[in-house]
Amino acid sequence: MINHEVRTYKSSENLAREDQLAWKIAEVASDPTPVDSDVTEMVINRIIDNAAVAAASVRRSAPTHAREQAQTHAFNPGANIFGLPVSDRFSPEWAAWANGVAVRELDFHDTFLAAEYSHPGDNIPAVLAVAQHKGIGGKDLINGIATGYEIQVDLVKGMCLHEHKIDHVAHLGPSAAAGIGALLHLPTEVTFQAVQQALHVTTATRQSRKGEISSWKAHAPAFAGKMAVESVDRAMRGEGAPNPIYEGEDGFIAWILSGPEARYTIPLPGKGEAKRAILDTYTKEHSAEYQAQALIDLARKLGGQIEDLSKIKRIVIHTSHHTHYVIGTGANDPQKMDPKASRETLDHSIMYIFAVAMQDQGWHHEHSYAPERAGRPDTVELWHKIETTEDPEWTRRYHSIDPNEKAFGGRVEIEFEDGSTLVDEIAVADAHPFGARPFARANYIEKFKTLAEGIVSDSEQARFIDLAENLESLDAKGVGELSFVVDGLEHSGSKGIF
């Protein structure tokens, strides 16, 4: 990996294109180095993972409305939309939109956390939609997805957005554009322009994940994917973009991030170096914010050790800065303690999540968020006894570049009414590569079958899994059928402009 220092330049300094971050990203995308076999296997895993959570959400309001918007944009050859017949084809940017919302709706697919947050699986809908529309086979699709993951992970490692209240999808627009550029074997110049345009139009505030969180939390990454498709299309036609987008004196770093004096270090693969960043990412066993994954596992364990949870006086979760301030009491969001809060808010409340996981000794992507579950009096009582606090050691481990130290959990101290205490800790989720039960292919398939049960027929499940597992050898027809059909999928009856 090559570490690239990125800073603001005055217009009079005439920064060469070849020295700009967007160009270096585009060079990674245009590098023809083959994808390693273990990366190929993980790409397949994440395609299955995306489809699993999309199947579980396909009838929910946000995915339904996004799908209905997309259905007004039929196109030939076009791309598939999850749930609809594979023969029905739609304009690729709208397919990316609909599928992106379905994938993101339940906050249940993969994650990477470093200087910034991210869900790199958000790259897949846009890259896949373009592959289906352009008639591209599995091997090139794998390269496009591996590239999207590489760029997003590398940006997340070196450039924090949330400290400036900028949403993490500002890294997704450029990464998806780079992934599409790699998929299509575009010249560096074309991908360079697309990356800049994608960043420019996908920069937004973090209010979508703050306060009264709405369904835009699921729509925001899908919008970034849609904009990436359009940005590449525009660049392929010879159109340019704001330049230099990162380093310009009125650009991203100078006015949106840390200012003209700031320095960022972005690691990127050198020429001839394989793109392996997807192997640094991890998926979710539980449908909740990733910082909650390990703590759900610990809550399940502790809940089974306590005979009477009503005897608990107080629970303090000592954890990282990110966990405390994003999903903990450090966020200062009263909605995180509100039994009438939306699902999107509850899955960003570790206090709620820990209480329910303790009581149920498990977690379910629907039942654990049901209004009647959130409003249960004994749950509300326990929930309001829980608080978080930042522990510098857990923050240090959160940001560690040593995979053996990097941690997303915390230490839990439970104080009982009689004065006794129970203390335990967990570093990583059970499903994490270094956890008690690391996810492998069989787990991804089981997750798909579990979430698709009662929604996607057994035969349709088998058809999709067979295509996904043979992705590397699929021709354009096979990639064009890499979706799943849901029988009896109904319209919501809602009306908009389209």
UniProtKB/TrEMBL annotation:
The segment(s) forming the MmgE/PrpD C-terminal domain are 286-472
For this protein, the record's Pfam families field holds: MmgE_PrpD_C (PF19305), MmgE_PrpD_N (PF03972)
MF terms (GO), sorted A to Z: 2-methylcitrate dehydratase activity
Keywords attached to this Swiss-Prot or TrEMBL record, sorted alphabetically, are: Lyase
EC code: 4.2.1.79
Q: What family classification does the UniProt entry report for this protein?
A: Belongs to the PrpD family.
What's this protein's name? 2-methylcitrate dehydratase
* Originating organism: Brevibacterium epidermidis
